[in-house]
Please model this.
Amino acid sequence: MRGIKRHEPKWNYLCFLLEHLCTRCIIAKMTLDEMLRSV
Model:
């Protein structure tokens, strides 16, 4: 597993992209919950 990460920056990029998407999803969900609560 360690060897793959070292010579495959593709995986690091994919993990970064996935983390970014998850963060955006969480923020969107929180914003949606706030909107529903204020209505």
